[in-house]
Structure formats: structure tokens, C-alpha cells
Amino acid sequence: MAFVKFSFIILLIACTSHAFAQNDSTKIYHELYRPQLHFSPQAHWMNDPNGMVYFDHTYHLFFQYYPNATVWGPMHWGHAVSPDMIHWTQMPVALYPDSLGYIFSGSAVIDSNNTSGFGKDGKIPMVAIFTHHDPKGADAGKNNYQNESIAYSLDNGATWTKYSGNPVLKNPGISDFRDPKVMWYAPQHKWLMTLAAKDRITFYSSPNLKKWTRESDFGATAGAHGGVWECPDLFPLQLNGSGYWILIVNLNPGGPNGGSATQYFVGQFDGNKFTAIDNKLRWVDYGPDEYAGITWSNTGDRKIFLGWMSNWEYGTKVPTAKWRSAMTIPRELNLKQEDGNILLSSEPVKELDHYKAGKGSMLTSPANLPAQCMLKFKMDQIDDYAITLLNKLSEKVVIGYDRKANQYYIDRTRSGRVNFEKNFAGRFTAPRFSTQPGSDMTLVIDAASIELFADNGLTVMTAIYFPNAPFDKVSFESAQPIQQMLIPLKSIW
Ligand code: FRU
Q: Could you tell me the pLDDT band of residue 359, with boundaries at 50, 70 and 90?
């Protein structure tokens, strides 16, 4: 995104209330378009997930937050906590802008060995590593206005102290130099930072989170470059007993269906350098509305991904009144081999199953559609099919598979309120990677979004929508027999 054009937005202060009705979810979270399965802030603007870390039986989700308006502004880190990544409690703001600038995206780690020295009285520090964005430097046309800083918490993320030696990593003169994702690299007993530097990823390492040394670069000539590289992530995954490293790189614009999107590389990492196994373009999610997605820290071998469920093309314009944007459903990532390709698969975390309202039932077409639910489809032979979500105004979203093109699609052309942005109405497609004769699809449906997971998560799409009446009917057509299951879900609020 272009940051300079947002400077005027601070004038649009809508409300300065910081009253958090933390347990009173009956009055909030039930407005028009309010997600019932997804995290959204009680009020005001949110973009990227930040600092996702698991600690002491609690999942932490920090996020890019502007607590004074429903559009982007001087960035803070908002905070929410959850026992299961599905039901969230919003907490007070964690990090406020300061003399070094706004608090842009970054990550959090648990410094169990107290390498930073921030731990006290046996308390393990949670350390946040983030970008300080200096708006004055940006306005003055400088190129060194983004620097990396740290802060720590000794009370499970409730209160934070910024390090007096900030910034810990100074900008070498690259205008886009941000979004540090830090992990512990055990084989070499060091911290590793994956940083987006305009059109490439730069890796840095540190013994103590305070002193950083440049290791290597990756990507100036690899992957998609339709826009700036942002919000990276690096982590290992196993496939049939072999280890691989996955490098996630978010990109805006230049996504497969326009605007913001998340690409990834499969490769090897030796502690200093990342090498991709091939030059194939791969996307975590082909839909228009998953961005800035990265994974939780400190979850062991389980890799759980979450993204911002919007797109910079229209994120500031979507027709919600009190708040803007939600996060995707958390997704478990795995590696799979298909037709000689090594691919990431994403599936909704199993914790979502605890929100089932009953066992579910076989679907007949047409049927009533509950406000939030999962639809599951299975077929022995894949052929053309279409699933239509419909309301009483004949507005609709059509989801399906086009055999000739071998593509899945989501069509929200006539989904209701679409005119706030010219590229919002449209039909979005994604390749089918599976070469199996049969197929399956899970749809996660909420008040204003749909997430599609096909072929055990090999093809994924996310799209938001804003109908003028709720979609309360579903119908389907198919060239081959399909089994359909409807599983109503409870609201998380
Ligand atoms: C991605 C992004 C990040 C930046 C943040 C600012 O959506 O542009 O690169 O840190 O948002 O809010």
C-alpha cells in the first residue's frame, strides 16, 4: 500500500472511546455483516495479523489497528486472546505509536532462554519484533523511514515495554523495509529474522534479538513481482519423511485475482540462505480476500496460518459501519505431493469442529441456509457443478468447478452491494491441482464471507460479500452425483 496518501486520514477521527466491554458480547458482534465465526475488532480499523504466538495455553493475535477511525491511520498493535483460535476476547491496545513512528507489522517470540535479558524473577519474556514507520520521513521523501524495533512483555502480552535501544535494525536505505518475522533457529542457536525489503527477502540473524547481522537475500528474480513484497514468513514442514522450508511472501498488488495476495516458495534453508526447489508460482489462497497471512509462533510441529480477510483494492471502502475487516479462519498447513508438484494444503483448524450445532444433515437442493455453517461436498468423479447461495432479493454468490478450464471459481458479480469499488464485482478462479478422479470441497460460510477448501485443501479461495438481505437458501446443480452435507455452526460470540 502507498502510505503517504493516508496521512490525511488522521483527521477523520470518528470516536475516541476505548471502553472495552470485554465480556458483554450480547450488545456487540451482532451488527449487519458482523462475522460470527471470524475475529473482527469490536470497532474501528484492522489490517494485518501481527505477533501471533502461542504461550501458556493461550493463542495471541495482535493486529494492525487504528483505534480512532474505520480507515487506515497511525498504526497501533491491537490484541486479542483465545484458548482455541476461534473464540476471541479483545484486549486493550498493546503497542502505541511513539517518537520513532507508527507500529507496523511484525511478529512475537517466546524467549525461553532469556537471550534478550528482558526476563525477570523467572518470568519468560514475550518479545515483539516490529517495524517502526516514521511518517515524517516518508512525507519528506526519505528512503530510511522504516526500521525494526523490539518490545517485551512479562505478563502474557497484557503490558509492554519498548526497548530503550530501538531501533535494533537500521534501514540501509531501502524505502520498503519491514514486517520482520522472527524464529529460533535451534541448529545454530540463533534468532532468524525474515524481512521484506521491497522486491526481495533479506535474512538476518541475532544471538539476543538486539544485535542483527545480515545473512543473505532471496527473490529479486523469483516469484511474482506485480507489487511490493510484504509480510514474509519462513518455517519447516515435513513431507513423507523429508524436510522442506516454506517461504511465504505477501505481495501487493499483483495477486492472481487482482490486488493483494499470498505467494509461497518451497525450498531448503541452511541457516544462512534459502534456495527454492523450482521457479513455479504458488499461491496460498487464490481468492481476492486473504492477505498478509503468516503462521503462529511456538506451536511446535503444527503450522497454523491466518490472514486478513480483505484486499487493499477496497479494504477501506467495504460497507461495514462500526468496524472494518475480519481475519480468515485459522488454517492448518501441510505439504502434499501432487502430479510431481510439492504444494501447501490449507484446511480449517480442527478446533472449528467444536462449534458444530448438531451432527449435520444431508442436503437436498434447494435448502435453507443457516447464518453460519460448513457445507461439505464429495464426489467420486469430478465434473461441472455449481452451488448457489441466494437471498430473497435474488442476489447470489455462485461457487463451483468448471471442468473444461479445470478451475474452481467464486462468482460474486450479483452478490448485493458491489459498487463501492469497480473491481469488487467479479468471478474469481483458481486452478485445480489434484489429478484424482474424485474430489471434495468444504465451504466455510459466515455473514459476509466464504472460504473454499477443495481436494483436501490443495486449492483454497476466500471471498467477502455484502448482500442486501442474508443469504438464506442454497441450491446446487451437478453433472455427476455428489454427496452434500450441511453442518450448522454456533456463533462464537
Ligand atoms: C501489509 C502492510 C505491511 C505494513 C502494514 C501497515 O498490509 O502494508 O507491509 O507493515 O500493512 O499497516
A: confident
Question: Which residue range forms the structural domain that includes residue 191?
Answer: 39-224+292-328
Catalytic residues: 48
**Number of domains forming the structure of the chain:** 2
Ligand 1 within 6 A of 9 CB?
no
**Pair (161, 309) in one structural domain:** yes
Name the residue of 104, 133, 228 whose CB sits within 8 Å of the most ligand 1 atoms, as the mutation to test its pocket: 104
CB distance 71 to ligand 1 below 6 Å: no
Instruction: Choose between 293 and 12: higher pLDDT.
Output: 293
- The atom number, within ligand 1, closest to the CA of 228 reads 9
Flag whether 334 is in a domain.
Answer: no
Binding site membership of 47 for ligand 1 (Cβ less than 6 Å): yes
**CB of 43 sitting under 6 A from ligand 1:** no
Residue-level pLDDT at 28: 80
Ligand 1 center to 117 CA (angstroms): 29
What would the 3-class secondary structure string for the chain be? Answer: CCCHHHHHHHHCCCCCCCCCCCCCCCCCCCCCCCCCCCCCCCCEEEEEEEEEEEECCEEEEEEEEECCCCCCCCCEEEEEEECCCCCCEEEEEEECCECCEEEEEEEEEECCCCCCCCCECCECCEEEEEEEECHHHHHCCCCCCEEEEEEEECCCCCCCEECCCCCCECCCCCCCEEEEEEEEEHHHCEEEEEEEECCEEEEEEECCCCCCEEEEEECCCCCCCCCEEEEEEEEEEEECCEEEEEEEEEEECCCCCCCCEEEEEEEEECCCCEEECCCCCCECCCCCCCEEEEECECCCCCCEEEEECCCCCCCCCCCCCCEECCECCCEEEEEEEECCEEEEEEEECHHHHHHECCCCEECCCCEECCCCEEEEEEECCCCCEEEEEECCCCCEEEEEEECCCCEEEEECCCCCCCCCCCCCCCEEEEECCCCCCCEEEEEEEECCEEEEEECCCCEEEEEECCCCCCCCEEEEEECCCCEEEEEEECCCC
**Residue 26 located in a structural domain:** no
pTM equals 0.95
217 and 309 share a domain? Answer: yes
Same domain, 308 and 402: no
The answer on pLDDT for 490 being more than 60 is yes
